[in-house]
TrEMBL record:
It comes from Microbacterium helvum. InterPro entries: YeaO-like. This is DUF488 family protein.
């Protein structure tokens, strides 16, 4: 993953040639978005937070620090094989954009995933 530039972008934003290899990292398909408009190269739903964790954070009021700790634990535990497979898939691409549908640009799983990918 050396030399790769990892970016983050909302999947609802217009695709751009500067995005490079576009990877959706949400478990659920974004509402109201066609596959053509998404312009994905890969949908890596296996590395998204589990349904239980996503629901606890977005609907049940789980705090950001607790979500962050739980998601990092998922990435190091049950999701690790999928994370390793994603690293291998992304390795040949000089620019990769991780796409998500969350409104908050700072407190979302793509930020945590981006930090975990170079490892």
């Amino acid at each position: 993953m050396r030399g790769m530039e990892l970016r983050i972008k909302r999947v609802y934003d217009d695709p751009s040639p500067e995005d490079g290899f576009r990877v959706l990292v949400d478990r659920l398909w974004p509402r109201g978005l066609s596959k053509e408009r998404a312009a994905l190269d890969l949908w890596a739903k296996e590395v998204a937070p589990s349904t239980e964790l996503r629901t606890a954070f977005h609907h049940d009021g789980l705090s950001w620090p607790d979500f962050e700790a739980a998601y990092r634990a998922e990435l190091a535990g049950p999701t690790k094989p999928a994370l390793d497979a994603l690293r291998a898939e992304l390795a040949p691409h000089p620019v990769v954009t991780l796409l998500h549908s969350v409104h908050d640009p700072e407190q979302n799983h793509a930020v945590l995933l981006k930090a975990a990918l170079p490892s």
